[in-house]
Amino acid sequence: SSSSSSSSSPKVAKLQVPILRLGTSRQVKPIEGEQILDYSGPVRTAGARGPEPSQLLSSLLPLPSLCKEHLSTLKTELERVEELLDMEPDCRFAMLARGRLLMALAIEGGLDALKKAEVEVAKIYQAVAELDAPRKGYYSQAAAMCTARLRVMEWLEQCEKASPSEAMQQHTPLDLSGIDLQHFPPSLVPPLLGLRSLNVSNANLRDFGALPMLRSLEELMASRNALVGGLAELKPLTRLAKTDVEGNLNLLEK
Fold it and tell me: Which residues contact 226 (CB under 8 A, 6 or more apart)?
C-alpha cells in the first residue's frame, strides 16, 4: 500500500513480507523459523521500458547515512579488531566482525568503496570457511553471494554508462556463471528488474530459487548445474524464448 501526507508530498510504500529463516545453531543443529519484514520507503515510478539502471542500482546500496559520531565509533572498532587479528590471525569471530565493519564503513564511500568491501569480505568468508569445518558450506556460499553482488554492481554500472534503459534493451547479459550460488536468492531480484539475459551456468544450482520472479527474462543459460525438478517451474517467465539447461541430469523437461 502507499500513502502521502499531501498531493505534493512523495508517495510512501509500506510492505510486510513473511520470510522463512533457515540456519544452524552453535551446536550445529538446524534452526527454522518465520519472520515478518517491514519496509517503508519512497515509491519509484518506472516508464514503459522499465526502471532505469540508476534506480536499480540504488536497490543494492545501503540507504541510511551514518553521522560523524557513528563513523568514528566504527573506525575505532575496526582498528581494535585489526589489532586483535594481528595477535590472533585465525580468530574467526574477529575476522567476521572486521567484515561487518568494513561493509558498514563502505556506505559513506559510495559504489567503489562497496565494491572493494565486497571483495575483501568474500576473502574473509573464504578464510573462515577453512577454519570452521562444520559451517564450511555456509561461509563458502556467503563468499559466493559477495561475488554475485559484485557482478551485479558491475553490470548495473555498465547499464548506467549507456543512455537510460538502452543497455537492457540491447539484451546486455548478466554473467553469474562459475559462482557457487547453489540457489538463486530473492535478494538478487530487485536490482535485476528488466533483465533480459542471464547466465548462471556452472553455478552449482540445486533449484531455480527466485529465478521465476525475473519476469522480464528472455534468455536463460543454466547449463552444467545440479538442478532438480522440472522446467514447469519457469512457466511464470512468459517472455522466455531461449533456455539452455544442458548437463542437469535430474531436471525434467516438463
Answer: 204, 205, 206, 248, 250
CA distance 237 to 254: 14
pTM for the model stands at 0.72
Averaged pLDDT of the chain: 80
Going through 105-193 in order, the beta strands assigned E by DSSP cover 174-175
CA dihedral for 216, 218, 222, 228, sign (positive or negative)? positive
Neighbouring CB atoms inside 10 A of 153's CB total: 18
Pairwise CA distance, residues 51 & 82, whole Å: 41
Q: What is the pLDDT of residues 191-202, one digit of tens each?
A: 887 889 999 999
User: What is the rounded CA–CA span in Å between residue 124 and residue 119?
Assistant: 9
**102-131 as b/e, with b when 16 or more CB fall inside 10 Å?**
bbbbbbeeebeebbebbeebbebbebbbee
pLDDT tens-digit profile of 69-122? 888 999 999 999 999 999 999 999 999 999 999 988 887 777 788 899 999 999
